[in-house]
Records
---
Amino acid sequence: MTPDELAARLRRWVEHEPVLPGALDPATMAFCRRKLRQLAEPGLLRRKLEREVTGPWEPLGRVLLVISEHDVLGTVAGAVAACATGNRLRVKARTTRPLVEELARVLELGPDECEILDWDSRDQDDRAMLEGVDGVLLTGGDALIRRYRTIAPPGVRLIEFGPKIGVAAIGGEVEDYATLAGSLASDVTLFGQGVCSSPQVIFVEDEGTARVLRRRLLDMKLPPLTGAARLLQLVRLQELALLARLGDEIIVDVAPHSGWGVTISRDPAHRLPKGFAFVVGPLHVQLTAFAQANRRYLQTLGTWGPVPELDGFTHRCRIGRMHDRPPLAPHDGVLELASLVRLVSRGDGE
Amino acid sequence: MTEPSTAVDRLLALPDPYAAITPADDALFEAAMAECDAHHLARNPRYAQLWHGGERPLLPVGLFKRTDLATPVDGDGMWLTSSGTSSGTVTRVFFDRASMARIQRSMRQIFVHARFVDPRPSNFLLLSPDPASGEHPGYATWFEKLTCCAPVHERVFAVDAAGRFQPELALATLRRWAEGTVPVFLFGRTVFFEQLAANGGAQIRQRASVRGLTGGDWHGVVKQLERGEILKRLDALLRPPSLDLRDLFGLTEHPLHYISCTRGRFHVPKYARAQIVDETGAPAAPGAPGLIRLSCPLFASLPSHDLLTEDRGTWGEGCPCGEPLPYIAYLDHITAPAGTGAPDAGEHART
């Protein structure tokens, strides 16, 4: 199946606005569908493959996909990337199993081209799971990656997309607060602030700017948090409020309707699990310190106004587009399709 | 015998701590809490700073991990370490001798009420590490201390110094004890009970009764078996004349640990109060999930007498076990959701 044929099959599916599994809020559902339509655009997969892989190559063979269970986009993108490079799939899935089955159907993958295994880490037969596998595409936490580094036989290529962190930075004078607040709201609340590109901290030079944004964000209609997330907000809110009584410089609020928090402090640790965590101070100093402390985990740096260049982030963009990495861009500093093939060289005269 | 001099002492001297609470009990409890407030306010300026408008602050358990709030106390005692499930860091809590004596006194009543006290020498299989083998979370010490519920005939720790469960050792020990008539107690982390139950293999029929206490939640490990299934499998594995497996709920920052009733719920004796609070901090309706709030005036070395836990539960009245006190049904420990930062990152999705 060529990349263009693959995209055409994918397009037939995404054009019908498929219902995606998981508790996605309407904005996140719409975003996921848009990204899937983008992935299925005519010619895009072919161009991406041509751009990432030059010279003779062959598929790795069989690729095991182990992708976070709540990661709908990652599951589809991983399967499509493995198929676009001519690999056969083995997918470890439990809650995403219906999605993977649907995907196998629309991509017309036979049972040998797409094996689906049940997700049960405790009783997993590692040898059976990895039998005949040439590569493992992993997205998840540190523990998952450590585990596969231990159990994968030598020679099996591990393509690791581990946990990452997104950061936003606001430099200089802000002229359009309404647009900036809306952009921050979108970046923070999409995917419930649970993906690598979600800004966990917002560095800002000027406290006045943070205060204006705080007011706007607290007044904004945001997708409501539910259940345990709101309870955890309550606990951390209480912690930060009491630390403020002990003299720490913290302003902390939780929007009563949505449950999203807003904090203003001088320490990135003073933030709520879900919220807009403004950290005030000289931008270069704060960003450098944060980047050093989280060196192996940096992913997206969202900017507004003049923000210093920094090493370590693998994607830099405007605030409001932090989840919208261009489809031809590398992922976490890696060419994803290139990682799924074996490049073949030939000697002179061969 | 002299009359107890303080409200806390009078609280501990109540004749039936599991009887229905009367207005007089409530008044005594409030007096004991006020005594506790006064103790900490007089000795702990940082704690005093947390008071606002004369109102006692409700302290979230994570605050003790962020800052030192210990109250200075005279004399010696012992240090315990929390398990680190909140905020990813641990708290070291000092138990002074006076607090420890009060705690032991009330814990004895909790054990007596649960019928977990036995005058006969007993075998203890601990699914927790030996606290003497190194730095371990507080539950290791707790489980070890709970063995005072019966004279120790033999005690085996089936978790090594690195915190790894040794199922072969546990099974071999149970095989060795199977022929005897010495009562058996199993204490330890729920996750290791689950592993023991899942790992069972051939039946190890016990001739003596088996009682067990599980505790400590799954602590980030994916839960594989429901409690009922663990019980069923252990019963099938051990086939004892009687199997009484209960749950233990407690935190290092809270002085008491509670034993579940025969229906798996927790009834808090008169030495303490438990409440469920909703997402706004208000008392939750019966049956509605919320955070467990615990109050207890027994700690002199830590001002945690009004504590907001990170454990979720529901409350209700009229437990089928017949206890007159309201009950708390434990649900789970809430943890930071995915994506809250790389150092505490769990499962991150990508875009």
---
Amino acid sequence: MATAFSSGLSSALVGGADTIVARATAAGRGALAVVRVSGPEAAGVAARVCPSLSFARGWRATLAGLFDAAGRELERALVIPFPGPRSATGEDMFEATLHGSPYLVERLVEACIAAGARRAQPGEFTRRAVANGKLDLVQAEAVRDLVAAQTAWQARNARAQLDGVLSASFRELREELIALAAEAEGALDFAAQGVVAEEATLAARGGRCLQRLAGLLATAPAGRLIRDGMRVVILGAPNSGKSTLFNILAEEERAIVSPRPGTTRDLLECELEIAGLRLVLQDTAGLGAAADELEAEGARRARAAAAAADLVLLLWSVDAEGPEPAAPPGVPALRVRSRADLAPEVRPGWLRVSCHSGEGLQALRAELAVRAGSDVVDLGGAVAISARHRAALERARDELAGADWGQLELAAERLRWAIRALEELVGGLSSEELLDQVFATFCIGK
Amino acid sequence: MVDADLIVVGAGHAGCEAAAAAARLGATVVLVTLHRGTVGQMPCNPAIGGIGKGHLVAEVDALGGLQGWAADRAGIQFKVLNRSRGPAVWGPRAQCDKTAYARHLRRVVEGLRGLSLLEGETVGLLVDDARVTGVRLAGGERLRAGAVVLTTGTFLGGVLHTGEERRPGGRFGERPSTELGRDLDALGFELRRFKTGTPPRLHRASLALERLEAQAGDPEPRPFSWRTRAVANRALCWLSRTPPAVRAIIEDNLHRSPLFAGRIEGVGPRYCPSIEDKVVRFPHHETHTVFLEPEELAGDSIYLNGLSTSLPADVQEQVVRAVPGLERAVFLRYGYAVEYDVVAPRQVAPTLESHGVPGLFIAGQLLGTSGYEEAAALGLVAGINAVRGLRGEAPFVPDRTEAYLGVLLDDVCGREHREPYRMFTSRAEHRLLLGVDTARERLMATGSRLGLVPERVFHVEQRRGERRRQARSALEASRLNPDAATRRRVKALAGVELAAPASWAQLLRRGDVDAERVAAGLDELAGLDPDERRVVVGLLRYDGYLGRHERERERLLRLRHVPLPADLEPHRLPGLSREVVEALERERPRSLAEAERVPGMTPAALAIVAGWLAREGRLG
């Protein structure tokens, strides 16, 4: 195996090896705000902005005066110095927790800039943590996920990923592949010394690696569900009780308060948390014979929404005329007999629900929870992988699956490519590392 | 006023290639050696080639070097290792009569016009205004030249160890070179201690070879060199195994081993361990294989391959006589370890010219490699570049994507090495493209252009390449329709059913087809000799993979052409760790591809550098 491969010219990290400053807490008003500074000049910045702070007394909170760029005292706040490398980024850092006034925060940031820092770019603190070996890339993603977590599962998954559970799995997999590659390379380079690799043994080991890969890939649907949530679309003929149901679920379930930044609030869509998972519930216009162009458009949009959904709630009012409506093809459907209070009829396969009497609502929520959580429940303690992880793992799997152990140098190629795919997740491999492995396991004569 | 264009110090494998290449390029060369009688010596394994090493021999030969030819002339047994695998990992090897080998090299060296062999000890370099101007010999003589190539092998500061005995020596029976090392040190070169070892030599008549498993060479032996018409197997080798008892013997005497008793500070190669190393590192191995190889066709000396050692003589006797067939072994020479100085890597450029002293080239074991083949390869490059440098011509530096020579240069000069460097196929990312079968195709044009390979030879090789390509096209273009007659034919020749229309190329790629056997019966390949057929067929199976390699090679070449500004300040680049910044500042890579090779560089860090270049608008 030869040297570290570059995985390509990916997008650049912006920023600098300068000292950076940023407000760490959310924008706007709050009782408290945290401002962070990290970099080689952190102590120097502190000396100007918070003179009574001493890096000699690291990791201790002190109440200290904060001064603006003109030297006027801004605040007395709790400040903590973190001498590197024992800090979040690995560099010298300090954090100030002050009253959450946007004015005060901005003055403080300006003061730090005047003292030699510059504004941090998004994610820059975490990037430095990765560069200094505090976190690997997978854990860095988890920081991002954890900060953005809105549901129980999102928090749980990100927490486990931040703890390194997924990184450990990737590392183990990589090590197994490297060991396998070492055996193959040993047989190729040391045939003269009688080093032999049995085709059957190699195939068996390759098979075990494939199983590991399959296990990791199996968490992908759960990963998608946790990170992106489940999209549930309510379908039905006009006046089948869709909006009523929508409102009941939206009001009574815990609604997720803040919308995704950058999107306009759609009155027909709301985000809920059900069973710890994010659920996007979407109301639609009625499906049926359209009276006019507007209704036809609404119906078109409803069908489009259903096609993009993870689950469809198909409503059929008990007092409706006409035949049983069919669920749209290709999407799982929960069949709901709405307005159940109007008639006692029971239909197999249809859940009786009445928003008026409350009948069936409990069961409906339970059923939604089951549907939402079905993929997730099997996770156990494992972390569900993301789309980025999935792409890399699928490449590795395809390479490994295509290895013909009867043509060893070609199988070795496939292994190289598989390991390379994993490099994007965990880091580079050099030929020296592989040779180390080879020599550790083989007895080589001259 | 110069005595010669070039002085080469040391007439081993590296020195002979350097001197011969330089002379054939028209330069005047003085080859200085401690002892005329030891030109071209094989101090250890009397064999040339193998897996990885054989690749280097093929490439040196394609560039007009001597080693392959000498191995053919002196060869007594020829074998292609990994023959059952694809062409990329075939490792041709020749067991040689080492006296004959040395004699052939010496005859060339003494016979080349412009090359004179001088016996003497080089004790220092002449340096004027930071540039080398010649050498100083013991006795006060000064030789002046435009450039100097140092290929002193294991002689610099050499110390030999056998058990508790240690004495100065470059090789068995030869004194070391002590002053030259001090001179290099004074010139600011960082030296390191490496070690290598060699097994005992036994008297053939004292061994019960008839009881051991014999090994013959290949039924149809192939020569290394284009200069050789044919070669023949003329000797056998034998195989035995150390019994479990050997482990106890060694363990009881470890305290008397110079390495384990801490008397040797030099670092030896991991992959080439002494028997005491093996016993310590692999205690669970009950036996270790040893090969018995005659050192000369008609001589008495048997080389004990696999039993390299520096244990005391009496322990060696115990160990060897415990091996089946060797119970009454008489020692012609005991095994020993030699500790020697090497020039720490990265003090020379990939051209092999030293950074510190322009005009001074360093090659061979002195640069930290291990093996005759690695030495010859480096010697050839040094000789070529020394002459081209004198003439103001661009140096010859093959890329690692085009030759094992490139891998060797890049690895040896570009990375840290804590042990002697030996070539393996796994060091080459583009192994599939770099098999011995393609060495001539890849390098003979250059050899011809450099003036080391006659044009007519190059043209013959070109025609062979053409024939191979045509045969390949014919195979791809062939059309087999599943009519009764064709199906019968395919079944008879290839042993498989033809269900749908196919080409011979497709059939030959199938895993269940004995491609070589089938190929022998095909008209499309009728114009090729068996060797060429094997190559064509072997490459068919590589097809899907080669495309990827080509693309990767192109990508790397594109990266090579993305220069890094000389004034790049790595500490100003975002997100680089301290280690990477230090490495970049130390190595000063000149292009993205070079940056990729910097030790400690990670894909993420490279992306940062590339991203910075992109933002600065410097990405080509």
---
Amino acid sequence: MIWRLLPLATERGAMNMAIDEAVAEGVRDGISPPTVRFYSWSPGAVSIGCFQSAREEVDVDACTRLGVDVIRRRTGGGAVYHDPDGEITYSVIAPEATFGNDIHASYRLICGYIIDALGHLGIPSEFRPINDITVGGKKISGSAQTRRGGVFLQHGTLLLSFDAERMSLLRPSPAKLSARSARGVEDLLTSVRSYRSASRDEVLDALRKGLRPLGEMRDAGLTIEERARANELALSYDDDAWTFFR
Amino acid sequence: MGEGVRKAERKVPGGKLVQMTVGGGKVRLTGDFFLHPEDSLHGLEAFLASLPSDDAASAIAAYAERNGIRMIGLGPEDIAALLAEVRP
């Protein structure tokens, strides 16, 4: 299978989610190729899982004060702070048949590629089911998957560094913290630069190597149609009725 | 939901956080779990609101099976346990 690779691009949160969805629609309609995408977020943003309560999971007032976007993903999973400089986000979007019906196995497979990427950086990591990658018991990468219209989409983070103060924008449930004997989000996380200095380009290169078993990758951009559809879809991600609907 | 709202949550061992809020005849599920397809949530919540407490886990499993819903990080028994907790 030949994949399109969308090289790292920086967008605001609503647009990042809209691009993932526009590409997934294109794959569904047979007009977009299977795609691997790397991206980052500016301004910083908190994304929440589609089943979470925004006001319970996020200090929304502080986000507003700091100019941090709050958006609701179409995927489940937990709230994430996406720092403009501290994270590379990836997406893998392809016909569902590419990864089969087993959701747990496909998390393990794709997280395995990210683990290999970390290995290229000299960082030994491991898969923590259901959807995390850890180093020394702390999460360095989390991911979320959806399967709609016969299309598989997994997006996930790789932390380059983290800003403990910004992580305090998240309000994890005490039950979640105590399950991991953590006092705050900072006790749960680690990052590439906690282990070694690494430029963003080095990490991107490692991710490319890690994801190579997927197949041949050809660098390309979004099509005009995908960009136009993403602009349209971004409006729904910007809509408070969606972000705060629960 | 306002007066008479009851809430319970559980971190499923090896799974996800699931919160249930009940009030005004409605059931709301929130948390960092996964449901596939995602838009099955509203139907599931409506089903839970009308579900008797007896043997709820089996009924939820049957509903999920009937509607092609896959739950990741939680199971019918977790939802049933939360229902039992929030119902007076």
---
Amino acid sequence: MKRWLPQPLFSLSLWGVWLLLGNTLAPGQILLGGLLALALPLFTVRFWPDRPRLRRPLRILTYILMLLWDITVANLTVARLILHPTRKLRPAFIRLPLDLGNDFAIVVLTNTISLTPGTVSADLSLDRRSLLIHALDVDDVEQTIARIKHRYERPLQEIFAC
Amino acid sequence: MLDLLTSFFLVVGGLFALIGSIGLARLPDLFMRLHGPTKATTLGVGGILIASMLHFSSLDSGLSLHELLVALFLLITAPVSAHLIARTMIHLRGGTGTVVDEREAGPQQGGTDQR
């Protein structure tokens, strides 16, 4: 099992992407996609030196749902900030200390930060211990950091077991 | 009915794309400008994709879901390019300053300049 299917979740997403690309559920495509989904991870497994271990895969779903909701909110927030000329914006750089030990998890967190209300990730420190964030309008730096750590970093730690 | 829904999502999507572009044009500095395209545009394209899914699913050819892929790739790539631009800006500005100094001081300190 482990030998023939080294990355079950990767295989599953490949299969999904294949069927979505074809926009079809024809039996031939399902079969072909399934074969590719089996073969590609087998051939590429050696290019993944430290692939993330997923401890709680189902938690990903709730994370994605939460992210989609937050993206919608983020859009409304930023739209409001852009359209209000009278309101004085208080942009700031924030340094967020990272507790994630896995590169992939850091990438996911970085993307999440860029997609959610009022923050864009700007730079990762060389030792991967802190992330520089640019925020469009900040009231309280501590509060922003606490929100990111609580809402996004904690779940990612659970998902990737790091 | 479905046409109404489709046009609703088209209008919403177009509106957010417009707001994103306005933000790009009128926010005062580069870092703030990044917020427009990474956020407002996401929902803009999202709305248009939902409209596309509704419209083409209602045609004879059956369910149309490959718009999901467009959304997925957009969500992956938009933050990456924003990050790249921001990072380039920081390193250009700090080219003779803190960034270089920190790097020479050793990787343990890491990080970049803070305004």
